[in-house]
Every structure is written in structure tokens, then in C-alpha cells.
């Protein structure tokens, strides 16, 4: 059993080692390349992308949907596990909260990147129509950003106060910063009451808001009368997909952080086992909705629907489609069913597969449908019937992914990865229980 | 001695450089001059090579009774076995008389190679001794097209049309006659049609030839829809060799009233935001203000934390 001092020593943020510096530098290089590409896109216009009248949503929107989906992890891990009193969540919640915040911020930025005229962003608010799902999206994304921030911040306050005291002598400047953000936390009963009440409210609130976010995102597609989108299944399909993407991303990040910060004492094999079970559940639910989404249209196929499904099952998009279904869902289910599969390393490999599958899944939701409208556009060049992202799109998208990873990296450079106060409280409780038992 | 030799050598070197410079200048001058000459020559060669295409002009005379009188002109050209509509061609219209030619005005073809020249007043033009009007449309040529002209001749015809009702059936009756000779025009085919948004709706038989009195009688079937029940019926003499196109329009409230099914004034999912459906104003706003109310409360809690 570790003492409070040991726990604080273990869990305070640490400087980057060589690998950390190299990782951060790599991310910054990718981001700079993306910024250069974006400036070029701003100057020359969207012509630098391969989006045309057919594929008017491309990789930017599929990347946006991926970010929105992944941000659902905050809702799943923090809110669900908190409300169901799963104590094993403690070392995972902050990682989930940070992923959630980073992803939803990047979702907002990605939408702006997709706009040819970002200077007209304000028009989305000035000329908003409540009938438009775009307006709902514009409202729900900032709401989720604020709520994700509060979800991260409220439980963080006691830890910031601990860090303030910890660095008081060694790093007074840093200590001052921690002091400012700890909002004069002393751990008084009144403060604890306000904090725990607020966390409870957020945990309750983030569930409907998370559901609204994913549903609005789904409705952006399903309110459009197009093959592959116009489906009543879409809301639930997106929520379950977000569940998969979020938990997959969490496992991948947890594995890397555990290894690089040597947190094996806090994030144990038991945590991976639990996350593995959660991922199997998520994948099974998502697989069920996938069957719904593809089997029924295949059964009742109209000519257009048949063409679309043929394209996915046997055509140009078949390799991606089957990679997503088999690699991103079926293999994870099979592997994670076994206890050996729920060990950290196999889980990490599976999580990477799931994240890749989730990213490409959004791509095959967006692109093939756009290339096959009910009413073909007359007299357009042949090349407009096909879409594959341009180098600008890849660079910019790469930069948004790198930016999300950089936000996560930097937040963990200055914030405790595992909640210190809560961990010490739990250890204290365990000790008290042991004494009482003996 | 040595000094004078040096001086001499220096002078020699100088003169050598000068002569070389002069040669250079001559070369440059010759080069510039030859480029200028060649350029001029090649330009003139090029100008000779440009082929002027033949321009075709097509003119239609149209007269609407109690309305406009105009000439619809089309300019085209056959280039590489393809008919091309020629835009931006300036055309001049003349009224040709036996011994005179009166300029009526100018017009320019649009992107589709078309132009409409509207006569302000029909009395602007005069007929010749045989009561025939002669109009000349002339193009004076440009770099790409040769000069061209086209004349048309027509006599002035009049159509008088009206609606009559016999045994509860509506008919349109029309009489066609020559305005100068004051005589009916016999056995000419007239078209009867109802004005529609894109193409007119023809009614009656395919050919309605005028009788000895220059008249036709065409029944109007019931139930033709019109805004407020109003129908605009047209009697048309179409591209006649002698009289051109003459059209009479009669408006009558004999159609079926169109019931306006527009949702323009209603609150719908597709209307502008000032006509947002009420339920969409209530529920999303309840959600938005409810959630943001709680968020504000949480921020107040942050403030309380720092003060407690």
C-alpha cells in the first residue's frame, strides 16, 4: 500500500524524456505542414482539394465525424461508469476526459477547415434556421466543448491544489499557475460539497448532451435524402459507433501513457481486462446496428440501393468496407472474448485496429453515397465522379489528428494523468478497511 | 622612348576596343531592325491567312395585335461543318423603298447569336407601291466574318379575335384580313393556343383554315386551369410567307381557378427562419436554454468554490 507522498511523487506531471521530445517535435512538424497547406487552401480556395460538385463532403467531414465520435469517450467512461459506481474507472477517467476535450475541439476546428470562407463563420449564427441540422450541430458542438472542459476541470481542482503545494519550493512560478487554477481549494467541507454536486450534475448532463451530439451528427446525414444516409437507424448507429471509436481510442492512449510514464502500479491488467470487456460490448452493439444498416436495404434493395451496396460489398470500396467490418469489429470481438486477448499488448494492437477501422468507417459513410446521387449532375467532367483526397487534404487532416494528439500530450505534460486526490482517498479507504478487518 | 611606345600601344588598344564596340552596335541595330521588319512582314502574312467566315442572317417579323411589333434576328455561321451561333454582331436595319432606304436602327446579337429589334411604332415603316414592307438587315463585316445582308418582305395583316358563348360552350372566333386591301385572307392556317409557362397549349384542330370570310371558330374545352380562372388565348398566323407572324391575344375568365397549394406563408421545415415551425421554436430552445442554464450554474459554482 502506497503512502500519500509516494502517490503524489508517482503521479505528478513529469518532463518529457527524449522520446517525448521527439514525439512532440514530430507532431509539431506535421501540424506546421498542415498549416502551410491550409494557408494555401485559403489563398487558392477549395480547388486545391479534390472535392467537386459530387463529393462535396470529403475527408474533412469524415474526419470531423471521427472526432465527434471519439469525443463520446468522456460520456461513456466518466458518466456511465460513475453513475454505475464502477470504482475501477479512477485511473482512466482523466485520460478519457482529455481525449474527449481534445477531440471535440478538433471537431469544431475541422468544420471550419471545411468551410471555403471561414471568415463567414459568424453567419452560421446570424442567419441560423432552427429547421437546419447544421444549426443544431453549430449549437451542440460548443455546448459539448464547454461541458467536456467542465468535466475535466471540476475533478482536477483538488489535484491542482496538491500540485501547487508540491511545486511551492522547487518551481514557484509553476506553483503559482497551479494555485490560480486551483481556485483557492483547501478541501473544506463546503468546497467538497459544491465540487461533488457539480461533478454529479455534469455526469448526468453529459449523457443527454453526448447523445444529442452523436444524434445530430447522424441526422446531418439521415435528414438528407440520399442512398446510404436516409435511414431511421442512423442515430443509434452513430451512438454505438462512437462508443466503439471512443473506447478504442482510450485503450490505445492508456497503453502508450502507461508505458511511457511507467504507471503499471496504477493502471493494471485488471483495467485492460475491464476496458476489453467494454470494447467487446461496444463492438457487438455496433455490429448489430451495422447488420441493420446493410442487411435490410440489401433485402429490399431498390436499383439505386443495390448499386450503392454493390460498390461497398464487391466494388471499389470493398477492401475498405471489409477492413472496417472484419478488422474493426469482428476480429476485436473474437480476440477480446478470450482472457489472453484482454492483456495490454494484444489490447493495444486491437485498439489501433479499431481506431483505424473507425476512421475509415466514416470515410465510407460519407464518400460513396455522395458519388451516387439519385439525380446525376449533367455535363460534369468524368473525374468529378470519383474522389480521393488531394495532398492538401491529407496534410491538413494529418495536422488535425496531430493537433488532437498534441493537446493530449501537452495536457498530460502539465496535469496529473491519474487523479491524485481520488487515488489517495481510495488508498486511505482501503487502509482503513484493512485495519477495521484486522 | 619607352613612354611613347606605351602610349602608342595604349592608343592602339583603345582604337581596337572602339572598333569592336562599333561593330557590336551595328549588329544590334541590324538585329533589332530585322526583327521589326520580319515581325511586320509576318504580321501581314498572318493577317492574310485569317479566313473570314460567311455569316448567315435569319429574320422573323412578328406582330402582336395591340402590342409590340419586332424582328427576331439570328446570326450563325458554318465553321468546320458545324453551325455556330455568332454573338456580338452589330446589325443595321433599313426600311427599303423603291428609291430610298431609311435607317431604322442598330442591334447587336447576344450570347446565343440572337437579337430582337422592337419597332417603337408600326408607322415608323412604310410600304412600297404594292403595299409590301421591305426590311433589310445588314452586317458590314469584321475581321472574322464577311459582310452579309438579309431582306424580308411582308404585308400587314390583322387578326381580330374574341370569345363567344353558344349553348354554354365557349368558342374563340378570329378573323384574319389584309389591313391595306381591307379584304379577308382566305384559307390560311391559324393556330389557337393557351399561354402557359414554358410552351403554349394548343387547342382545337391541328389546322384551322380560314373560311371565305377569313374566319375560324374553335371551341374551348372546359377545365383548362388558369390563375384566378383567367386564360390568355392566342390566335397565331405562324411564319406566313406573305404576312410573317401575327398574333392576337384575348384574355377571358373562362378557365378553372387554380387553388394555390403553396406553403409560402406557412411555418414549414423548408421555410425561412421567420417562419420556423412552433414546435421547433419550443423544444430546441427549451433544450438549449435548459442545458446552458445548468452550464451557467456550474460556472457560478466555480466562482463559489474560489470564494468559499
Properties at a glance:
heterodimer, A: 438 residues, mainly alpha, 74% helix, B: 308 residues, alpha+beta, Immunoglobulin-like, nine-stranded mixed β-sheet, flat
Topology:
The complex is a heterodimer of chains A (438) and B (308).
Chain A: H1 4-11, H2 18-44, H3 59-70, H4 73-83, H5 90-114, H6 123-126, H7 133-166, H8 172-181, H9 189-222, H10 234-260, H11 269-299, H12 303-313, H13 318-337, H14 344-371, H15 391-414, H16 420-437
Helix pairs in contact in A: 1-16, 2-15, 3-5, 3-10, 3-14, 4-5, 4-9, 4-10, 5-7, 5-10, 5-15, 7-8, 7-9, 9-10, 10-11, 10-14, 11-13, 12-13, 13-14
Chain B: H1 2-49, E1 56-64, E2 69-79, E3 82-85, E4 90-96, E5 101-108, E6 114-119, E7 133-139, E8 148-154, E9 157-166, E10 169-178, E11 183-184, E12 189-194, E13 201-202, E14 208-209, E15 215-220, E16 225-226, E17 231-240, E18 244-252, E19 256-257, H2 278-307
Parallel strand pairs in B: 1-18, 16-19
Antiparallel strand pairs in B: 1-2, 2-3, 2-6, 4-5, 4-7, 7-8, 9-10, 10-11, 10-15, 12-13, 12-14, 12-17, 17-18
What does this molecule look like?
The complex is a heterodimer of chains A (438) and B (308). Chain A is mostly helical and 438 residues long. Chain A has a domain of 295 residues. Helix content of chain A is 74%, strand content 0%. Chain A contains 16 helices and no strands. In chain A, α5 packs across α7 and α5 packs across α10. Chain B has 308 residues and is α+β, with helices and mostly antiparallel strands. Among the domains of chain B are: 99 residues, Immunoglobulins (Immunoglobulin-like, Sandwich); 101 residues, Immunoglobulin-like (Sandwich), CATH 2.60.40. Chain B is built from two helices and 19 strands. In chain B, the strands form four sheets. In chain B, strands 1, 2, 3, 6, 12, 13, 14, 17 and 18 form a nine-stranded mixed β-sheet that branches. A four-stranded antiparallel β-sheet of chain B has the order 5-4-7-8, with no helix packed on it. Chain B is flat, with a radius of gyration of 39 Å. The termini of chain B are far apart. The relative contact order of chain B is 0.09. The N terminus of chain B is likely disordered. At the A-B interface, α7 and α9 of A face α2 of B.
Amino acid at each position: 500500500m502506497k503512502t500519500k507522498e509516494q502517490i503524489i511523487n508517482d503521479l505528478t506531471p513529469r518532463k518529457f524524456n527524449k522520446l517525448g521530445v521527439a514525439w512532440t517535435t514530430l507532431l509539431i512538424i506535421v501540424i506546421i505542414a498542415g498549416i502551410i497547406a491550409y494557408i494555401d487552401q485559403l489563398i487558392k480556395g477549395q480547388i486545391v482539394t479534390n472535392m467537386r460538385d459530387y463529393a462535396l463532403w470529403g475527408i474533412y467531414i469524415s474526419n470531423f465525424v471521427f472526432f465527434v465520435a471519439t469525443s463520446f469517450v468522456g460520456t461513456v467512461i466518466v458518466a456511465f461508469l460513475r453513475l454505475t459506481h464502477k470504482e475501477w474507472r479512477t485511473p482512466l477517467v482523466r485520460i478519457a476526459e482529455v481525449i474527449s476535450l481534445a477531440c471535440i475541439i478538433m471537431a469544431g476546428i475541422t468544420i471550419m477547415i471545411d468551410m471555403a470562407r471561414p471568415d463567414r463563420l459568424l453567419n452560421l449564427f446570424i442567419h441560423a434556421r432552427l429547421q437546419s441540422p447544421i444549426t443544431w450541430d453549430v449549437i451542440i458542438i460548443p455546448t459539448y466543448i464547454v461541458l467536456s472542459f467542465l468535466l475535466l476541470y471540476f475533478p482536477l481542482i483538488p489535484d491542482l491544489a496538491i500540485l501547487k503545494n508540491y511545486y511551492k519550493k522547487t518551481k514557484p512560478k509553476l506553483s503559482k499557475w497551479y494555485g490560480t487554477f486551483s481556485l483557492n481549494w483547501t478541501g473544506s467541507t463546503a468546497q467538497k460539497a459544491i465540487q461533488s454536486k457539480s461533478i454529479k450534475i455534469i455526469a448526468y448532463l453529459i449523457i443527454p448532451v453526448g447523445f444529442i451530439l452523436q444524434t445530430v451528427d447522424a441526422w446531418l446525414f439521415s435528414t438528407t435524402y440520399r442512398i446510404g444516409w436516409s435511414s431511421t437507424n442512423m442515430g443509434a448507429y452513430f451512438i454505438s459507433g462512437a462508443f466503439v471509436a471512443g473506447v478504442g481510442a482510450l485503450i490505445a492512449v492508456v497503453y502508450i501513457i502507461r508505458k511511457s510514464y511507467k504507471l503499471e502500479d496504477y493502471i493494471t491488467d485488471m483495467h485492460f481486462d475491464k476496458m476489453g470487456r467494454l470494447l467487446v460490448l461496444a463492438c457487438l452493439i455496433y455490429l448489430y446496428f451495422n447488420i441493420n444498416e446493410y442487411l435490410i436495404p440489401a433485402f429490399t434493395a431498390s436499383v439505386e440501393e443495390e448499386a450503392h451496396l454493390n460498390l461497398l460489398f464487391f466494388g471499389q470500396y470493398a477492401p475498405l468496407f471489409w477492413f472496417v467490418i472484419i478488422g474493426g469489429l469482428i476480429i476485436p470481438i473474437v480476440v477480446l472474448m478470450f482472457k489472453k486477448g484482454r492483456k495490454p499488448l494484444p489490447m493495444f494492437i486491437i485498439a489501433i485496429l479499431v481506431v483505424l477501422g473507425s476512421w475509415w468507417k466514416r470515410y465510407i459513410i460519407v464518400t460513396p453515397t455522395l458519388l451516387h446521387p439519385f439525380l446525376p449532375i449533367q455535363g460534369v467532367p468524368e473525374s468529378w465522379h470519383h474522389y480521393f483526397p488531394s495532398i492538401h487534404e491529407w496534410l491538413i487532416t494529418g495536422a488535425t489528428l496531430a493537433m488532437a494528439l498534441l493537446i493530449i500530450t501537452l495536457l498530460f505534460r502539465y496535469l496529473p494523468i491519474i487523479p491524485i486526490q481520488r487515488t489517495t482517498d481510495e488508498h486511505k479507504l482501503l487502509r482503513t478497511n484493512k485495519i477495521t478487518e484486522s | 622612348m619607352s613612354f611613347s611606345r606605351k602610349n602608342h600601344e595604349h592608343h592602339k588598344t583603345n582604337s581596337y576596343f572602339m572598333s569592336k564596340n562599333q561593330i557590336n552596335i551595328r549588329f544590334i541595330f541590324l538585329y533589332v531592325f530585322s526583327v521589326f521588319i520580319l515581325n511586320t512582314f509576318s504580321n501581314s502574312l498572318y493577317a492574310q491567312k485569317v479566313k473570314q467566315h460567311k455569316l448567315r442572317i435569319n429574320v422573323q417579323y412578328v406582330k402582336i395585335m395591340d402590342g409590340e411589333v419586332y424582328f427576331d434576328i439570328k446570326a450563325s455561321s458554318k465553321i468546320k461543318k458545324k453551325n455556330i451561333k455568332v454573338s456580338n454582331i452589330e446589325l443595321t436595319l433599313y426600311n427599303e423603298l423603291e428609291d430610298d432606304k431609311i435607317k431604322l436602327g442598330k442591334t447587336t446579337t447576344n450570347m446565343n447569336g440572337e437579337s430582337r429589334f422592337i419597332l417603337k411604332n408600326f408607322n415608323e415603316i412604310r410600304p412600297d407601291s404594292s403595299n409590301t414592307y421591305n426590311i433589310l438587315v445588314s452586317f458590314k463585316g469584321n475581321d472574322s466574318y464577311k459582310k452579309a445582308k438579309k431582306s424580308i418582305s411582308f404585308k400587314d395583316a390583322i387578326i381580330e379575335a374574341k370569345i363567344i358563348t353558344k349553348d354554354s360552350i365557349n368558342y374563340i372566333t378570329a378573323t384574319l384580313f389584309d389591313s391595306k386591301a381591307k379584304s379577308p385572307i382566305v384559307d390560311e392556317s391559324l393556330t389557337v393556343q393557351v399561354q402557359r409557362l414554358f410552351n403554349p397549349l394548343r387547342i382545337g384542330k391541328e389546322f384551322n383554315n380560314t373560311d371565305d370570310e377569313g374566319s375560324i371558330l374553335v371551341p374551348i374545352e372546359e377545365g383548362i386551369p388558369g390563375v384566378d380562372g383567367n386564360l390568355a388565348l392566342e390566335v397565331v398566323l405562324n411564319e406566313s410567307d406573305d404576312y410573317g407572324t401575327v398574333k392576337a391575344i384575348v384574355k377571358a375568365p373562362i378557365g378553372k381557378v387554380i387553388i394555390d397549394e403553396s406553403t409560402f406563408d406557412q411555418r414549414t421545415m423548408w421555410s425561412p427562419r421567420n417562419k420556423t415551425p412552433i414546435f421547433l421554436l419550443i423544444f430546441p430552445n427549451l433544450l438549449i436554454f435548459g442545458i446552458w442554464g445548468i452550464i451557467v450554474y456550474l460556472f457560478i459554482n466555480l466562482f463559489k468554490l474560489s470564494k468559499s
